[in-house]
Amino acid sequence: xxxxxxxxxxxxxxxxxxxxxxxxxxxxxxxxxxxxxxxxxxxxxxxxxxxxxxxxxxxxxxxxxxxxxxxxxxxxxxxxxxxxxxxxxxxxxxxxxxxxxxxxxxxxxxxxxxxxxxxxxxxxxxxxxxxxxxxxxxxxxxxxxxxxxxxxxxxxxxxxxxxxxxxxxxxxxxxxxxxxxxxxxxxxxxxxxxxxxxxxxxxxxxx
Length: 207
Ligand SMILES: [Ca+2]
Ligand SMILES: [Ca+2]
Description:
Immunoglobulin-like; 6-stranded mixed sheet; 3-stranded mixed sheet; 9 strands
């Protein structure tokens, strides 16, 4: 009899526990149901994270870019991204990881500008404010001199091609005396390609 009472008591005790267990399970199910929303949050975070850092800038020149200027992103001396400079002179590198980069502004017939040591933190947007280039480095030697004048003179009146596009210094789709004038202009002639060290707190120039 005592044994039977114990069994009955045990069953009576088990029922509430069972209910509690079911309730706990229900709670667990609710938790599982809640997970998709937290997963969505994770997905949104991942998308945002994938956007990464950016480097941007604007090149001011007296012509409208039309697929004739490039911004080249380098890391460790190697190109990692190349973008066209937009019609208004802007360029943008997206989805970058944290690191140190060099940016090369390269336009046919103009001096290059290499902006070195651009430090980028995770998801940081870095804007390069100085993108100085000079018109007249026809042969891309890094300096605007008599050789550029001679090269452009040899191409006067010739149809533009990939091999002589640098002689169209003013980018008007024609190689003429106007291009020679631009090369010889005091603001251009004798100038060298830039190589600038970039710091987030300022600039230093080396020639
Ligand atoms: Ca040159
Ligand atoms: Ca021209």
